[in-house]
Amino acid sequence: MFYFTIVRHGQTTNNVAKIVQSRTGGELTPLGIEMAKSLGRHLKDEEFTRVFSSDLHRCQQTTENIVSQLNKKPDTIQYTPMIRERDYGDWEFLSTEIEVKKRLEMNLPDNKKHHVDIPNGETYEDCKKRAGQFFSEILKIIDGAAENEGENILRI
């Protein structure tokens, strides 16, 4: 069997302050740390064969706090820029209201809000391409597994 679990990082100080943060490390709040530990306790009996995490600090903190609660630690934890959030370029550290205003100016519906153009940022299409490359790597792992082997992958 193959399992793939996707987790978002815990609450950060910038999440609380409603500040855009994408390519910078960030810091989990005490609640964010507890969120990760709580999820780890919930997943404690899972035997993850691999963990992939963004290399950004907030994701590393989330990973460490989840893994610290697992009964069996995964053999492989890989931190990679491939699964970072979309780079918000010049909007980094601005109020999250910027995206809302721009989306309204562009008359984008909620389901298309990520199509907004960001000065000196990553395009939505480039972000999708990068995510697709990561999922292609996951499929290679699955395709390369022996018939009697399974994978239980956690992605943070």
From TrEMBL:
<comment type="similarity">
    <text>Belongs to the phosphoglycerate mutase family.</text>
</comment>
<feature type="binding site">
    <location>
        <position position="58"/>
    </location>
    <ligand>
        <name>substrate</name>
    </ligand>
</feature>
<feature type="active site" description="Proton donor/acceptor">
    <location>
        <position position="85"/>
    </location>
</feature>
<keyword id="KW-0378">Hydrolase</keyword>
<dbReference type="InterPro" id="IPR051695">
    <property type="entry name" value="Phosphoglycerate_Mutase"/>
</dbReference>
<dbReference type="GO" id="GO:0045820">
    <property type="term" value="P:negative regulation of glycolytic process"/>
</dbReference>
<dbReference type="GO" id="GO:0004331">
    <property type="term" value="F:fructose-2,6-bisphosphate 2-phosphatase activity"/>
</dbReference>
<dbReference type="InterPro" id="IPR013078">
    <property type="entry name" value="His_Pase_superF_clade-1"/>
</dbReference>
<feature type="binding site">
    <location>
        <begin position="85"/>
        <end position="88"/>
    </location>
    <ligand>
        <name>substrate</name>
    </ligand>
</feature>
<dbReference type="Pfam" id="PF00300">
    <property type="entry name" value="His_Phos_1"/>
</dbReference>
<feature type="binding site">
    <location>
        <begin position="8"/>
        <end position="15"/>
    </location>
    <ligand>
        <name>substrate</name>
    </ligand>
</feature>
<protein>
    <recommendedName>
        <fullName>Fructose-2,6-bisphosphatase TIGAR</fullName>
    </recommendedName>
</protein>
<dbReference type="GO" id="GO:0043456">
    <property type="term" value="P:regulation of pentose-phosphate shunt"/>
</dbReference>
<dbReference type="InterPro" id="IPR001345">
    <property type="entry name" value="PG/BPGM_mutase_AS"/>
</dbReference>
<dbReference type="GO" id="GO:0005829">
    <property type="term" value="C:cytosol"/>
</dbReference>
<feature type="active site" description="Tele-phosphohistidine intermediate">
    <location>
        <position position="9"/>
    </location>
</feature>
